[in-house]
Amino acid sequence: MSPSYLLKIVTVGAASVGKTSIIIRYSTGTFREHYSPTLGVGFAYKKMDVDEDSVNLQIWDLGSQDFLERTRANYYLGSQGVVFMYDVTSWESLNEVIEWKKEVDRNLDDYRAILVGNKSDLAMERVISTEEGQKIAAQMGIDHIETSVRLDMNVNTAFEMIARAIIASFH
Fold first, then answer.
1. pLDDT in tens for each of the 171 residues of the chain?
2. Regarding beta strands 81-87 and 4-13, do their DSSP bridges make them parallel or antiparallel, or are they unpaired?
3. What residues contact residue 6 under an 8 Å CB cut-off, 6+ apart?
4. Which of 36, 63, 71, 155 has the fewest Cβ atoms within 10 angstroms?
5. Superfamily of domain 4-170
6. Where in the chain are the domains?
């Protein structure tokens, strides 16, 4: 293994899209059935390998309530990556991504990002096509991936994609 990286990533998006769940799934391998909103901020730490590099990820889970915006501002500091999340069963959550991008841009100058469409296992309730998510990601100039935190589908891949994008920006 060559260089070791410590990367700070923040996860943002509408309430109940699965921000906390994806972080818990990724960092511990478990899935949490019940929903309870993140009031304030959550945090997880995970070691991973990206090709020849050893990577330590600090993943910050930022609560989505409007009244937390001032608090969130402090947690963007030093972040190199942003995971924008939406729920494929909710147009509102995808539309909110644009507002989240504005908030992130107010607080961060240089960062890499990824757009994650979660709950892809809920086929009968799905309202946003993969193509629609890809279109928004293309407008934002970032990569897109769909996940199912419940089924543990593409969760590791999503974090690997954001880590790769950050590391590539160093070279």
1. 567 999 999 999 999 999 999 999 999 999 977 777 776 678 899 999 998 889 999 999 988 888 778 888 999 999 999 999 999 999 999 999 999 999 999 999 999 999 999 999 999 999 999 999 999 999 999 999 999 999 999 999 999 999 999 999 987
2. parallel
3. 56, 58
4. 36
5. P-loop containing nucleotide triphosphate hydrolases (3.40.50.300)
6. 4-170
